[in-house]
Amino acid sequence: MKQALVAIILGAFSLGVLAQSSPVGLWRSFDEKTSEPKAEVRIVEKDGVLSGRIEKRLAKSAVPDAVCTECGDDRKDKPMLNLEIIRGAKKSPDADVWEGGKILDPENGRSYTLKMIPVDGGKKLDVRGSFGPFGRTQTWTRVN
């Protein structure tokens, strides 16, 4: 009986740890120049594919009703708030890496190849956008 209880407790703990090693959740991004909070992005999973939307804009300079004027696809002139900036990422079979999707920079309207890696026990997320051999990585922090 004691062993079964210990197994249940350890199993529940390990499931919590596994859940945190996923990009699913609410994340805070930061301005690369000022290090100020920029936005909160909600990442969700549907049928093994991740997508992410801007849930809250935090930048002091954020225009309340701004739209994505620079976007060239179906997101053109859509409000920045609730704008889908992550599309199509899938978990790599080899590691805790999600890739194969795209991330949109709504400030310039460009989409980049996406790679996301949870770090620091899932408290942070390395988000890399690249175009060919060039790219940059941002570290987002988990809000919840």
In short:
The protein is mostly beta strands. The protein is 13% helix and 47% strand. The N terminus is likely disordered.
Overview of the structural elements:
With 144 residues, this protein is mainly beta. It has one domain: Lipocalin. 13% of the residues lie in helices and 47% in strands. It has an eight-stranded antiparallel beta barrel with strand order 1-2-3-4-5-6-7-8. A hairpin with a 4-residue loop joins strand 6 and strand 7.
What is the tally of beta strands? 8
How far apart lie the N and C ends? 34 Å
Number of domains: 1
Name the structural class.
mainly beta
- For the largest beta sheet, what order do the strands appear in spatially? 1-2-3-4-5-6-7-8
Radius of gyration: 17 Å
Strand content: over 45%
| CATH topology-level fold name | Lipocalin
Low-confidence regions: 1-19
Helix content: 10-25%
User: What is the 3D shape?
Assistant: globular
Which architecture does the CATH hierarchy give at level 2? Beta Barrel
What average pLDDT do the residues reach?
A: 88
Distinct helical segment count: 1
Text of the CATH class: Mainly Beta
Biggest sheet overview: 8 strands, antiparallel, barrel
Helix and strand element order? HEEEEEEEE
Give the helices and strands, then pairings.
Elements: H1 2-20, E1 25-30, E2 37-46, E3 49-57, E4 84-91, E5 98-105, E6 110-119, E7 124-131, E8 134-142
Antiparallel strand pairs: 1-2, 1-8, 2-3, 3-4, 4-5, 5-6, 6-7, 7-8
Provide key terms for this protein:
mainly beta; 8-stranded antiparallel barrel; 8 strands; 13% helix; disordered N terminus; Lipocalin; 144 residues; single chain; 47% strand
